[in-house]
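Could you join me in thinking about how sequence relates to backbone shape in a protein? To get us started, please write out a protein record for me. Would you write everything just below, so we can both look at the same thing?
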Amino acid sequence: MPLPILVRMNQLQRICVFCGSSPGNNPQINQQAQHLGKVLAQQDIALVYGAAKIGVMGDVAKGSLNHGGNVIGVIPDFLKLKEVVHLGLTQLITTENMHQRKLKMHELSDGFITLPGGFGTFEELFEIITWAQLGLHQKPIGLLNVDGFYDDLLEMLQVMVDKGFLKQENFDLLLVNDEVEALLEQMKTYQAPVIEKWLKANRT
């Protein structure tokens, strides 16, 4: 009788969430953002995010804080001047610029989840997955595809694979689901591929 395969569970103590600072026009996205925050709090997973009190970002923070979760906000100093910062967080970290903000969010987190958003959200997602591709980290990266928001993006990524610009194994670094709980399970059981690390953090 074959021995059972033991799956190592990732210890996700803190998850960084990338998402829009705008609310968008689909209430389902805002509801799922709050649900994600709630589930993170219920599973005793701290939320790391961009510290805004507005938009989808504010919804995630609200969902966590309303259920006793720990929420760590990371924001560059110049954005605090625009009065968008959430002052009711567990911890607020201020950085000098956007790049330091992303480095700090990466440093604090055991995994990443991307919700719907705009250019900034896309930039954060693609930078963190590029770092994984280059072997800078082995943390799980999840895409919460609320109401098919990312269907077209996923189709474009498949075109990149088909045209030889993206390796399938790198596409597979992105864990996709439309349900919060199911995505977290994927992240907990994620096994990172062995990638030779040739780029150091100080060269990013």
About this structure: Residues 14-191 form a domain with the Rossmann fold fold (CATH 3.40.50.450). Strands lie at 14-18, 46-49, 71-76, 91-95, 111-114, 141-144, 174-177. The first strand starts at residue 14 and ends at 18.
